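Duplicate of #3305? Posting structure anyway:
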């Protein structure tokens, strides 16, 4: 009975410590997911780590409780339990240890005497309210657990965003979530067909917190180049002069922070198709004079 009570107290204390550690790890991993919006593979690894910690911790706690409550493999031996009772009731500590020694030295000659001595000690032990004994260390970890739960609830609200809460994304590693961005770029001009040597414009507009400028990337069969284009009246306008070959043009803006979940924001790619102008290589005129000219 005493061993079971001691094992119960240790199980409660160990469980409180484990829950505090697990919630702390969950908050840390949730913070990483909230900041960086990890991909499916990374979220799968995090999910497996959390599942392994939870499963292995639960197995350890339950198996350790069984071993201690049953006194298996030398855990919570009679001597350890006697020492623990002696700390609670110092006045019977010596007699309790002596009783254990008597049990170990018990034989047919002193059997009745030892049983009588043990029964007296047992009466004194039964008067001790073990269930009412408060484990100060367990109470400390209870307070820590309350704080951890409060932090978890607060972080749950903090990590709520579109498309989904960071904790929900971690618990659903197979789902691909869209990474939120501060703005979206849209092309107004779309694809164009022009004649060689003409001039045209690429116009982008956006929704959200638009940057003061962005890069307009121009790609043809030979090279890729970019121009810095400022934001004017809510639009980015790029003038392209004397275009003589097909070009693909798009806008992009790279993140300026290492803690941003996105690397860059790009518009859709517009293609400028260039059609060669017709060239007059040779002109022949046939002149037929009127009859009255007699020519």
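Output from current build:
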């Amino acid at each position: 009975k005493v061993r079971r009570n001691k094992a119960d107290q240790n199980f409660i204390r160990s469980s409180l410590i484990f829950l505090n550690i697990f919630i702390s790890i969950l908050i840390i991993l949730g913070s990483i997911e909230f900041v960086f919006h990890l991909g499916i593979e990374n979220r799968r690894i995090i999910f497996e780590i959390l599942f392994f910690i939870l499963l292995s911790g639960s197995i350890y706690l339950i198996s350790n409780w069984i071993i201690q409550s049953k006194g298996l493999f030398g855990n919570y031996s009679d001597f350890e339990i006697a020492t623990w009772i002696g700390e609670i009731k110092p006045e019977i500590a010596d007699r309790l240890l002596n009783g254990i020694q008597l049990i170990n030295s018990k034989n047919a000659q002193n059997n009745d005497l030892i049983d009588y001595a043990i029964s007296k000690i047992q009466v004194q032990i039964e008067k001790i309210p073990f269930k009412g004994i408060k484990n100060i260390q367990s109470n400390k970890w209870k307070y820590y657990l309350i704080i951890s739960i409060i932090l978890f609830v607060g972080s749950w609200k903090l990590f709520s965003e579109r498309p989904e809460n960071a904790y929900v994304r971690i618990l659903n590693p197979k789902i691909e979530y869209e990474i939120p961005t501060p703005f979206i770029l849209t092309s107004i001009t779309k694809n164009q067909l022009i004649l060689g040597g003409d001039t045209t414009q690429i116009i982008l507009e956006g929704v959200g917190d638009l940057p003061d400028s962005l890069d307009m990337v121009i790609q043809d069969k030979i090279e890729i180049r970019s121009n810095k284009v400022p934001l004017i009246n809510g639009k980015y306008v790029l003038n392209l002069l004397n275009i003589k070959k097909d070009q693909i043009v798009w806008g992009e803006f790279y993140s300026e922070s290492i803690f941003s979940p996105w690397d860059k924001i790009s518009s859709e790619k517009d293609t400028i198709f260039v059609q060669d102008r017709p060239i007059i290589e040779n002109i022949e005129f046939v002149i037929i004079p009127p009859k009255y000219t007699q020519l």
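Confirmed duplicate; merging threads. The first helix runs from residue 2 to 36. DSSP finds seven helices and nine strands in the chain.
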